[in-house]
Design the sequence.
């Protein structure tokens, strides 16, 4: 897991991503550009039980395995590259 410091830290933001996914990279960059404090996990860098747990969590929250999946305040899960939805959920 990696943490990115940001000035916008009023919401807890976690993202499941793939290290090779262009949409994941774009979402990470968008969050950085907005100075959002967030943590992310590149699921393709995991193996065994940690990988299974991450995938199970994504599917439990969204119904399917899609990347990126941004989770806000451990309640709202947004899958796919949806910058407008993420900004709205963050109040930005």
Sequence:
């Amino acid at each position: 897991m990696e943490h990115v410091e940001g000035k916008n830290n009023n919401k807890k933001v976690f993202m499941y991503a793939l290290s090779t996914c262009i949409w994941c990279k774009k979402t990470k960059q968008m969050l950085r550009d907005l100075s959002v404090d967030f943590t992310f996990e590149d699921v393709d860098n995991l193996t065994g039980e940690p990988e299974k747990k991450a995938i199970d969590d994504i599917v439990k929250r969204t119904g399917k395995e899609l990347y990126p999946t941004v989770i806000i305040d451990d309640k709202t899960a947004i899958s796919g590259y949806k910058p407008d939805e993420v900004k709205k959920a963050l109040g930005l």
